[in-house]
Amino acid sequence: MAKTAVKISNLTKVFDDLVAVDKLSLSVPEGAIYGFLGPNGAGKTTTLKMVVGMTEPTSGEIEVYGNKLTFGSHKFREDIGFLPDVPGFYDWMTAKEYLKFAGSLYNIPNTVLKDRIRDLLQTVGLTKSQNKKVGGFSRGMKQRLGIAQALINNPKIVILDEPVSALDPIGRKEVMDIIASLAGKVTVFFSSHILADVERVCDHVIIIKDGRNMLEDSVENIRNLSKSREMEMEFENDEAKSFQDSIKNSGWVEKLDIEGKKAKIKVNDLDNARVEINKWICQNNIMLKKYIVAEPTLEDIFIKVVNGND
Ligand SMILES: Nc1ncnc2c1ncn2[C@@H]1O[C@H](COP(=O)(O)OP(=O)(O)O)[C@@H](O)[C@H]1O
Ligand SMILES: [Mg+2]
């Protein structure tokens, strides 16, 4: 079992009469790329701010590598790097100057800092733009610089709040590729509501709603949770119609479309569907050209969880 990098237990934040985070518990395994998901207003930013010490919890506990964090203390927080949801930059600084400034907030020897800035600029693809003023940077470049800033103290854990949400598809891909490249080097705990990106890079996710844990697991287990799937078949001969007749009244068929020699089926019970379809194929000596069971997307599952189905 991997060590636990961040452990949150019963964490609660109340603003006046609003419970923004409600007895939330989660564990981020060391080395994971951990996706923190939830619709707008779910409590993601509030949770992350409590972890980095910017907001005081109403109750509950946060541990970093088994050490309990106390609000107002910097102890154990040097293990954490943070990129806020709306990072502020000094437009008149160059990228390199900005990283130098960010590094000066920590006790990093000059020679170490110099090498680190060079490496980080490389990691986030800003080596060529290092002497340009941040004011002229695109959103994607700023976000990449923000990631370099979050890594400047060589933290064990980096927390990124919606690092890709404001970016166009190309900017998003660049930032997600950087996040993916951090796998194994640093534990990444990041929030997002762009499911396709999360799906590509995360090994673990939690889905929260109204400040509460709806689902936390590895992406693989979460995918396997869903029994409803889309299937696609293509027949060698003209058997699509008789296939339709044989299964259309089965309880597991949710949707069935036939087009020529092709069938598209949405099933709500994959195991049963497979057994019965296979039986029909064997009994009728059917030749198939194609037989595909699509993986459910994280998006399908997210929508179900957030809307309260299943
Ligand atoms: N400083 C604050 N004062 C009052 N309410 C807040 C404050 N910060 C956040 N909230 C509320 O807490 C809830 C969770 O917000 P937030 O953590 O920003 O969600 P998310 O990041 O998931 O979109 C929202 O209803 C938001 O309006
Ligand atoms: Mg937020």
Give the arrangement of secondary structure elements:
Blueprint: E1 4-15, E2 18-29, E3 33-37, H1 44-51, E4 59-64, E5 67-68, E6 80-83, H2 95-104, H3 110-123, H4 139-150, E7 157-161, H5 169-181, E8 187-192, H6 195-201, E9 204-209, E10 212-218, H7 219-225, E11 229-235, H8 240-247, E12 253-259, E13 262-267, H9 270-283, E14 288-293, H10 298-307
Parallel strand pairs: 3-8, 3-9, 6-7, 7-8
Antiparallel strand pairs: 1-2, 1-4, 4-5, 9-10, 11-13, 11-14, 12-13
Helix pairs in contact: 2-3, 4-5
The structure holds adenosine-5'-diphosphate (ADP) and magnesium ion (MG).
How would you characterize this protein structure?
By secondary structure, the protein is of the alpha/beta class. The chain has 2 domains: 4-223, P-loop containing nucleotide triphosphate hydrolases (Rossmann fold, 3-Layer(aba) Sandwich); 226-307, Alpha-Beta Plaits, CATH 3.30.70. The protein contains 10 helices and 14 strands. The protein has helices at residues 44-51, 95-104, 110-123, 139-150, 169-181, 195-201, 219-225, 240-247, 270-283, 298-307; strands at residues 4-15, 18-29, 33-37, 59-64, 67-68, 80-83, 157-161, 187-192, 204-209, 212-218, 229-235, 253-259, 262-267, 288-293. A 6-stranded mixed β-sheet has the order 6-7-8-3-9-10, sandwiched between helices. Strands 2-1-4-5 form a 4-stranded antiparallel β-sheet, covered by helices on one side. It starts with a strand and ends with a helix. The mean pLDDT is 92. Bound molecules: adenosine-5'-diphosphate and magnesium ion. Residues 44-45, 85, 162 line the site of magnesium ion (MG).
